[in-house]
């Protein structure tokens, strides 16, 4: 079954240095969807190892299975427009509407 449009939860504002978790979920897809987050239209990288992640200064953890995007400490650089895409290899992938977070 192809995924439906996911529901994204993105806070509209956050204080610098706080923990922020964004979530993305859709329930129709079978097999279960994987989720990819985007910021300002660019796919966010999955954190693979401390070395490579530190090199590109990744401050978040993205879980493609659960759809969560967790910022341990948000910075002004994390301000932007976020959306997520659900896909399971069947039918078209589905995106939620873009939501802006201001830090």
TrEMBL record:
Residues 3-103 form the Ig-like domain. Its main location: other. It comes from the Eukaryota. It is found in: Cell junction, Tight junction; Cell membrane. Keywords: Cell junction, Cell membrane, Disulfide bond, Immunoglobulin domain, Membrane, Signal, Tight junction, Transmembrane, Transmembrane helix. It is a single-pass type I membrane protein. InterPro entries: Ig-like_dom, Ig-like_dom_sf, Ig-like_fold, Ig_sub, Ig_sub2, JAM2. GO terms for cellular component: bicellular tight junction; cell surface; plasma membrane; protein complex involved in cell adhesion. Signal peptide: none annotated. Pfam families: Ig_3. This is JAM2 protein. It comes from Helopsaltes ochotensis.
């Amino acid at each position: 079954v192809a995924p439906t449009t996911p529901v994204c939860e993105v806070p509209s504002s956050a204080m610098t240095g706080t923990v922020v978790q964004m979530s993305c979920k859709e329930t129709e897809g079978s097999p279960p969807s994987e989720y990819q987050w985007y910021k300002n239209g660019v796919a966010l990288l999955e954190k693979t190892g401390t070395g490579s992640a530190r090199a590109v200064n990744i401050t978040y953890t993205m879980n493609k299975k659960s759809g969560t995007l967790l910022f341990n400490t948000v910075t002004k650089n994390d301000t932007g427009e976020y959306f997520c895409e659900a896909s399971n290899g069947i039918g078209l992938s589905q995106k939620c509407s873009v939501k802006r977070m201001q830090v």
